Amino acid sequence: MFFDCHTHTVNSDGKNTVWDMCNSAVNKGISGITITDHATINFYKDHDTFNRIKQSIADTIEAKENFRGKLKVLKGIELGEYTYAPKKADEVLSLGCFDAVLCSVHLVPKAGWSLAYNRIDFSDPSISDSDINEYIKLYFDLLSETVDCFDFDILAHIQCPARYITGKFCRKTNVMLFEEKIGEILEKIIKRNIALEINTARLCSDFGNINFQTEEILKLYKLLGGKMITLGSDAHIESSVACNFSEASALIKKCGFNSLYYFENRQPREILM
């Protein structure tokens, strides 16, 4: 049975309530869901992050009781930009009752942009291919730095910039140009017993192909001794819960893995496939 370890609600930038997301999970026949609303630290005050996460936790606790026996509902958080203001990040984490903490990076200040990569218009012809490659390099540098200083459970969407640079703005990318840096990051999370997320948003192209070098990253993770993989739909609307999970499962098996994981009380739980 599948477990969706990465979902968002109205308590961050999602469109639906915790209840809606859980209902969708039940209807799709998966065994569990983790609500991981955004705590994006560079917008800490603007988004009233602390109180929104408190509300996310409260709503998830209520849903956990109401869906008991039908769906396992767990409390999580996606904490982005930890290095931007570690004290503010730790304030949110001090709530201390999460089942899973996801790590992500959406903003690369050293690249010279004040915007997150999903808001930069990479279709602009004045942005060259070398500019894009430099941006991705700086992203992986920052992600590696973040992994070094942040206590978390799941590394979310490791190649996320490509999801926007290519998937949204139609510029060609190949994150495996930075295989050495990706390998360093993977070795770090393996050593610390942190799971690698396969993010299934835009996993497949319109032609059914697997996007953004996901297969190559999985094979490298396997080669380096990685074992723990989570599935995350990154759903921001109820219809996207568990999206592309069948395709992801087939890919994971193809790459030599026979189990998936989720986290409960910040401890990994294995699900055999």
Keyword list:
alpha/beta; 273 residues; 35% helix; 10 strands; globular; two-stranded antiparallel sheet; single chain; TIM Barrel
Concise description?
The chain has helices spanning 18-27, 49-66, 86-93, 129-149, 160-165, 179-191, 214-223, 245-254, and strands spanning 3-7, 32-35, 38-40, 72-80, 100-104, 154-155, 195-199, 229-232, 259-264, 267-272. The protein has a single domain (3-272), classed as Metal-dependent hydrolases (TIM Barrel, Alpha-Beta Barrel), CATH 3.20.20. It is α/β, with parallel strands linked by helices and 273 residues long.
Describe this protein's structure.
This protein has 273 residues and is of the alpha/beta class. The protein has a single domain (3-272), classed as Metal-dependent hydrolases (TIM Barrel). Helix content is 35%, strand content 18%. The protein is built from eight helices and ten strands. The protein has helices at 18-27, 49-66, 86-93, 129-149, 160-165, 179-191, 214-223, 245-254, and strands spanning 3-7, 32-35, 38-40, 72-80, 100-104, 154-155, 195-199, 229-232, 259-264, 267-272. Strands 1, 2, 3, 4, 5, 6, 7 and 8 form an eight-stranded parallel sheet that branches. It has a two-stranded antiparallel sheet with strand order 9-10. Helix 4 (129-149) links the parallel strand 5 (100-104) and strand 6. Helix 4 (129-149) runs parallel beside helix 6. The longest helix has 21 residues, at 129-149. The radius of gyration is 18 Å and the shape is globular.
Task: Give me the secondary-structure topology.
Layout: E1 3-7, H1 18-27, E2 32-35, E3 38-40, H2 49-66, E4 72-80, H3 86-93, E5 100-104, H4 129-149, E6 154-155, H5 160-165, H6 179-191, E7 195-199, H7 214-223, E8 229-232, H8 245-254, E9 259-264, E10 267-272
Parallel strand pairs: 1-2, 2-4, 3-4, 4-5, 5-6, 6-7, 7-8
Antiparallel strand pairs: 9-10
